[in-house]
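Checklist before submission:
- one chain only
- standard amino acids only
- sequence pasted in full

Submission:
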Amino acid sequence: MRKQDRKHIISKRFKVETAKVEAQKEYEPADALELVKSTSSTKFDSTVDVAVRLGVDPRQGDQVVRGTTELPHGTGKTQKVAVFAKGANAEAAEAAGADIVGADDLIAKIQAGFRDFDVLVATPDMMPAVGKLGRMLGPRMPNPKSGTVTTNVTQVVNAIKKATRVQYRVEKGGIVHAPIGKASFPAEQLQENMNVLLGALLKAKPSSSKGRYIKKITLSSTMGPGIDVDLLRAQALAEKV
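Returned file contents:
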């Protein structure tokens, strides 16, 4: 099939799915999740993503919202984990199912261009040496705020491999993107995952953020249309977590 034909099919499919969504309507969370499932028409199991626009200015150091949270039903996505550790910590990481474990050898490998991993974890004693990779790795660097610098590598690696741990970080436009599961998940599980994620964002609100903190919530599946969620209702559910 020619590239132009594929684009035509994607465009036609997207128009059909978009027609199911009422423009400028903010849906009840439960209705929005049912709609995001019904507008997912890819041949693979789409990821359901939530985009949350926050009332913060990421250019200000004290307004960078980032962290991790554990979703009760996971994301459905398997991730490759690389761990910087030595001795007993290295053995613990391997036993927990880490895909790659190393110390100076792993640092050299990454310096040579190795990038076959999704998440990097490090023990605190490794950070002085790992710090030299900062410019190369940018936001993929292990970081205490994201929970990827830890003395408990077993717990962290287990959480990542079981796909329950989600990292979030506000982007330049003040938006946080995060997966909350797959389109095949029951809507109830997606709802519980979203409640936990929004709850974590609420708890991470910077003290310097003034005015409305959560400004907009949009759900979508991979290659699917965006569906706006009722802010007040979604926040009320998240506050109960």
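Reviewer check: Strands lie at 47-54, 66-70, 81-84, 100-102, 119-122, 165-169, 175-182, 214-221, 227-228.
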